[in-house]
Amino acid sequence: MKIADWVHIDYKTNRATGFITEITEEKVGIFVTIPKHYGEVKVDKNQPMLAISLLGPDDLPSLIDLALESKDPEWFQALSYELNLWRPGSGLIKRSK
After folding, report:
1. Does a structural domain hold residue 71?
2. What does the DSSP 8-state code read for residue 2?
3. Model-level pTM greater than 0.85?
């Protein structure tokens, strides 16, 4: 990996996408673009995955439908898990008034 590479990370129980801004011996600085509210984060150097996939979160519901139609429970579970990672964390917390 190098500076400016696009990567996926798991951050605060969500999948996030961004580009590398800094690399040290132990950490990688990433400017997160999806979701927008994270900004710059630092993660362990072994955590980022290069974003080489052509699929994004908007593609997953159609693939889940296809997995259901093909009666493939393992594919359905994998896609459902992936879709859940893309869900914004702010929707998971209920705030009391």
Report:
1. yes
2. -
3. no
